[in-house]
Each structure stands twice: as C-alpha cells, then as structure tokens.
Amino acid sequence: MRPEQWQQFKTAAKRQNRGGPVPLSLIVDCPWIPPYSGISHWDYFFDPEAWFQANLRIMQDFPDVIWFPSWWSEIGMGAEPSALGTRMHVYEKRLPDVEHLPFPLDQLDALTLPNPRTDGYMPLCLYRFQKLKQRIFEAGYTIPVVHARGPLTIASFFRGVTELMVDIVDQPERAKQLFDLTTQLAIDFMKAQVEVLGDCVEGILVLDDIVGFIGRKHYLEFAHPFLKRICDAFPADWVKVFHNDAPIVACIDLLPDTGFDVLNWGKQTEVTWAAERLGGRMCLMGNVSPLELGVQGTPQQVYDAALDVLRSAGDHPLILSLGGAVTIGMPPENVRAMSQAAADFNRNRVCI
After folding, report:
1. 3-class DSSP string for 173-231
2. What is the pTM of this model?
C-alpha cells in the first residue's frame, strides 16, 4: 500500500473516522497473486524478483484497493510451523501443504523455541524483505504491518486440528505449555520482521482461525491470555489486526480486551450482529463472502453485497473487505465491483 493508504487504514482502525469515508482493504497473499500474475508458486516463493513484480502489479492494477498487509512475505501457512518440525510440501502450481508429524506431547519439554532468523522458512520471508525493501520504498509504497499465524493455528499445524482439540480437554497443562511456545514464536517472528524493515512498521496482523473452533470457557483459558500477550508485546499505539473467519460467536465480545483494534471476521455472522456485540470497541473489517460471492458471484452481486455491508454497519467503525482473504479464482472484475461500491457509498455519504 501507499503511505497515504496506510494513514486511511490506520485512522479507520483506531476508530477515528466516524462519519468519514470507509476504506476498502483486501487481505491478499499466495492463493490469489501468482495465478493473477501468471507465474508459478515456485517462482512466487523462491524468486524474489518474481515476488516483487507480482505484488507491484496488483497494486498498480488496483490502485484504489488497500492491499493488506502490503507486500506480505509468506510461504502459505508454513513459515512458523516449518520451524517446529512439520513437513512442508511446496508445489509448482498450487498452494503448499503443511503435514504435521507425530510428536508425543509428553516430550514437549525437549522442544526448543525456534529462531526466526535461522529456522524453517522464516529466514526466506525475512530475506525477501531485506533484499527488496528499498525498491519497495523507492516505488512509492510502504510496509507498515508485520504478520504471524496465531498461537493456536501454529499449534494446530504442529499437532493436527483434531489432536489439538483433544489436547485442550485431556492434557490442558501440556496444551498451555505448547501455546506458550507458539505465542513466543509468533512474537519473535514479528519482531524479527520489524528489525529487518525498520521504522516503517506500525502494526501487526495475527491470523488464528482455530480460536473460533472453541467455546467461551476454553477461549478464556487457552486463547485469550496468549492473544493478549502478543498485543502487549508491541507498542500500544500500533494498529493490531486479528483475522478469524471461523465462527466466533463464543468470544467476539471478549476480543477487544486482548488489545486488537480490528477484527477481520467471516461470512457466518451478519455485520449488524457483530457490530452489536462489539459496541464500537473494535473496527470491523469485512464481510462480503469471499467464495460464494467473491469467486462465484457476478460483479453486480458483489457490488450489491458490498453496499449491504456498508449500509448495515451504520455508525459502527468499518473497513470494507471480504469475510477473509481474497480467494483463488476471484475475478478482477469483482475486485473492481467492491472498489466501485466503496466509492459510491462514500460519495453519497459525503453528500448527505
């Protein structure tokens, strides 16, 4: 994103633009960018120049969209789990897979904390930033947000989702020990990115869908303290964005107390319900359906859905987005339809 776009996002995220224009921001990464740019996933992940040109292209082709988190240096879901001993399958023409390998939880004491600068695929992500950040700045863009998977999601790739749910019930203290490790890994990875990028960083993005898989009681014990610990590890005035497009009915009203400013939530809950539960304590980011509408809908359907989200939010702080990330196969015409809906809504809002 451009520096002025970051200011727009930051103002909305901090709930300082009541009655002002609603920005359009879309989370975008490897499911969509390589196919749109006509390159392989191998090129996107392992050729820094291909990664740079692909990201530059989407920002030039859609200048009105605030692409988030902006120049996302990632390798699918695998950067953090790959440092814990999971197996990464990286394919030329599709997304990587992360395979968890058997690990007895009673041996957790022997598992050392990974170093983001040396372990797994995290150094590759840091290398892209180190090699290309100056060219990004010189092209007129900024990299204001660093990123990490959340503690439960990292743990799920290490243990497996089903196994992790069983751990929470049958071995609660071991599960918390694992989350303690994965929380620190997320913090360390983001701090390593800050060290590489420098003073341009003013925000974090944490992605953890597994938080939406557990009930309220388990959320309070196994998720909330670790999410709060992540937020507390970074300056209070930074923008802190939490992505969870799983059902979050059990914990949505508790999320503001973690320190996150923005919730990118899924299609399962209506914007009016989410706004009522949050009561203005977080900025909502969403929630046009990314698959049924973003990929499969017509531009008119996407336009109408985007307007419905904008109108339904009322006075609640909002950043227009998809209910999740841009999904593979979303036509560029549907991206432009969302951009047009935001422009029309903001124009009429100013006129009123």
Report:
1. HHHHHHHHHHHHHHHHHHHHHHHHHCCCCCEEEEECHHHHHCCHHHHHHHCHHHHHHHH
2. 0.97
